[in-house]
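User: Run a structure prediction on this.
Assistant: Running it now.
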Amino acid sequence: MVLNTIEAQDLVLAHDRFSFNELTVDDGLSQNSVISIAQDTTGFLWFATQDGLNRYDGREFQIVNEQFEDVTRPSYSKLGKVYIDHENNFWAITNPGTLKFYDRNKGQFHSIKSIDSASVITQDLDKNIYIGTYGKGLFKINNTNRDTIQVLNKSNSILRIYDLLEWQDHIWIAGSGGVYSYEPKNNRLDTILKVSNINFSSLAQKKNNIYVGSYQKGLFIASAQEKKLKLFKGFSQEKFPTSIVILDLMMDSYDRLWVATYGQGLYIIDFPSEKIKHFTADKNNPHTINYNDILSLFQDSSGTIWLGSDGAGLSYYDEYLSKFNSLTNEQLPLNINVDIIRSIAKENNNVWLGTSGKGLTRINLKTLKGTTIKPGASNLKGNRIMSLLYDGQTLWIGHQEHGLQKMDSNGIITDIKEIDNLTIWKILKASESQLWLCTRNHGLIRYDKEKGILAHYNSKNSSLNADNIRTIEPGNSNSYWIGTELNGLFLLDTETDKIKQIKSIPDKIKSLYYDGKTLWIGTNGNGLKCYDPTTGNTLHFTTQNGLANNVIYGILPDGENNLWLSSNKGITKFSHKKGRASIENYGNYNGLQSYEFNTGAYFRDKEGTLYFGGLEGLNWFKPEQIHFNPFKPNTVITQVKVFDDVRSLSDVIPLKHVQNTIAFNFASLQFSQPKLNKYKYRLQGLDEDWIFSGNKNEVRYTNLSPGKYKFEVLSSNYDGVWGESPAAYDFEIEQPWHITNMAVAVFTSFVFQGCFIAIGLFMLLLYLRLHRRDYLLYGTYILLFATYFFLRIDLELQTGIFTNNRNLFYYILTPTLLLVTGIFIQFVSSFADIKSYSPKFSRELYWFSIVVYIIAALSLLYLLTTQDFGLVKDRLNLFLLPLHIFSIYAVIKAYIIVKSTLRYYIILGNFFLIAFTMVGVYFGSKNAFSGGAEANNVFGFYSFNISQMGVFLELIVFSMGLGHKFYSVEMEKNKMQKIDELKTKLFTDISHEIRTPLSLVSGPLENQLNRKNLTEKDIKELTMAKNNTDRLTELFSQMTDLSLLDSGQRTFKLTQGNLNSQLVQLSETFQYKANSKKMTLRTTIQGLHNCWFDKDMIEKIVSNLLSNAIKYAPENSSVLLDAKEKDNALLLTVVNVTKGSSNMDLSKIFKRFYQDNDTSEGIGVGLALVKELVELAQGTVTVGTIENNQIQFSVNLPVNQR
């Protein structure tokens, strides 16, 4: 039977790989009417819409709230514009015709009010800007002085200017009623074509021709030589319409003219090949443009061409994106079916496609002429063609459930009745006369074209324990690999007729390919496996290794040892070299008929062309002809976040140490299929190597340590071509203030000063305790120098840390430093006792310190009134220069007049101070005091600038001098202490030696007084001798106690007891003595039952006071002893009457051996002992007169535990 072939109509463009993608509001575009397109030098694309200006980075849109005019009529239009000039300045014409300049840093537009009704913008080679208008003429903004000049006005008969183009030193003008050429050099306007009823909309230029689009009147062309416009009607074989509305023209990089029309879609005119391609929107064809009303055209830096539509967003064409030829039903007449392909074969220039349910199709892929054969119109038994084989003469057809048929060269189809009603999954040529047939449920059949079935292998008659055979692949000599649906892999040896099961491959097998050494197995759900027949080793590759899908329908080799795999997720290029797998996946965006392909639908012809069939159609390609996109994309960092706060990309302020979590968003400025772009990044200062993030365009770093960092990121396009220059962002995280170099310097200085302050305070405490002037002077000096040191160094450092206000530092430091300097001068003068050496020099120092105080007051007043901190900062050393000059004079003078060893320390210390300060002035007054401190190990903690080095050395040397003086004073004190100890010992020994003879004299005298029959004279003389002996003994005891007090050997020991009882006993002891002098001793004691006191000390104090009262009181008088407890203290009062108390100098009564005149008897040392004992016990004793010649002694002693 001869086929009744139905030839397809001639179709253009289907095989030229023009495939368009779209970008709409669903992707983030602010509005779907894209009026104008531009690209800045960074690489961002800008889309002007009716509702917003969109900056596109490939992943996200940033929208500026600005509207653009969109008025389109058959004879004219008003469309907004965006334009980026050669200097990357951004210009826009917004609604209604307002010219604006866009500040991208601030995200704001600035209107240029001198020009209104603007329509178009361009720039010449001299960077002058030209602005066309609707009815207001042509304006020029001069690049040199930015002046705006109207070069053409409405009198030039150009009512509306729709487009401008700079070409051959002329500005070409497309306007209402004609096309014009303006020569700026001579300010001359030439008319190229003037037609009153035609409005010209757009201009494009290439080589020696200029192209002009019009409203409703088609396309015109003019050559550079003739400068005459001619209507373009097409070529001899292809015509171009002459009545279309053209809104935009663009020449691409291949010299093809793109023509955007309103209502008629897109035209592409290839003048060298004289071909015209026409694209219109078709909802059934996903690869064509998305709308027929096209407002704007633009080719970006990567070569991608963008089409802005009037309501459907953007379409874009990337010549490198579509890798494969594609054929689907949408490209063919309704009676030709190329979808749901299950088998492929090739006969000369025709490709046979077996479909699942839609018959058998023959198609010529060059002419796209073909036919679909179905049952009823032919002898074809069924619509489901599972396998095909063309053996050079005959096309063998394997059906689902209808067995095997063959078609001869005349198109006659005949049945193979031996193999009827079977499902034939695959047909393989075994030899010129034999075939292998893989069946469902009937095993493997070896079929001879003349003899019929030669062999039948199934689970019942052979070792092939499977009946559902999916595929078969030739192995080495006389062997075949058999892939089954459910039972894994088998190996058939045709010489021995034995079948061996490969137990290491138990998978459900879809496809096989043997390359002579290795068997590749495509499985149903378990990825790709590699089996080595020699070793039995198996390799396994799945989606975890990079495959797009784990169902491998087909495996085909190319000429470069690569495998091409079809799956449910597109086509994969796979190679395995030197133990490493390389995987590249391709999807719908690469021009595939669909993501999903089919079992058995793969074929490789003799020329190396690969064919894969799927649900929607056919793909075919030669692997060596696949071109990769060479564009190396720019990468930009689009956002930086510190925690959740967005940080300006131009912000260089260091981050605080707590701001240690930072996130980066970035984008690859390759806009075609941006989700396929890949990224790698690193953070210098943390990451050693680049980190690959796939298509993830954000990264977050947490808990970064303080330091300097540089974030870098690179991107690749969808073909893995990487950019060369990474986008970078430098930032710094500051140290916590308490561990910065400056803070360490401050803290170290605080410790240093603390040592001096502690020493100074200790010296002051010693002074308060021991009343030594040396301690007072040295302690005061240390405290003063610590203050001086603080002002000169620490104050600057601290203001730098805590306030960042250098003015505050100079505001406080300068007057205070001068003030302390004056105090310091006076102190040194006093400490070195300059006055004792030279009163004149002492006066000079005094008056100089006064001058310093005046300067301090004036500087403070100056700063308060003028706040001219800069002058003080810049001239601080020069401001203090007179102080240093006088210091030179003072040091030399001090060296001359000071005779002690202190002179050497003074001269050395001040030499360091003055020398380093002068060097600081010499090297620059700006840095002498304001340099602060930087951490290093010069002195083990930190170093200062030049002047501060002098201060430090002066402090060290002068402290050494003071230490030397202090040491000398201490040596002298120790010497005196040893002399006192020697004197005390000598006095104690002498007292002991004297008191012994006195006691020997006192005893016999007392015995004699006790004798009877003594005369009055004898009693008087013996009593006088006895009294003087007792007095002398008492005096020696008191002097011994005083000597112990002077030497510091006398201490008091507190014990707890009844003080009341002891005072009663003491008063009773003196009662006899009072009675003997005819006196009355009255005692009043209250409380004092539980006290802490030194018994010996209390006894000596009370005894001396009572003894003194009784001694100096007249006969027949009274002595009063009053004792009581108040506020944990003993209040003791002794009152007696004395003669001549008004003549006594009571302020001297506690002096040793005091007497009020030369003839009176001295008081002795008893009261002096009382005073020193009371003070030792931390109490007080006072004396005063009261009425009637009475004298009162009052003692206040603590009686608590202390």
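Residues 1-15, 793-810, 921-948 have pLDDT under 50 and may be disordered.
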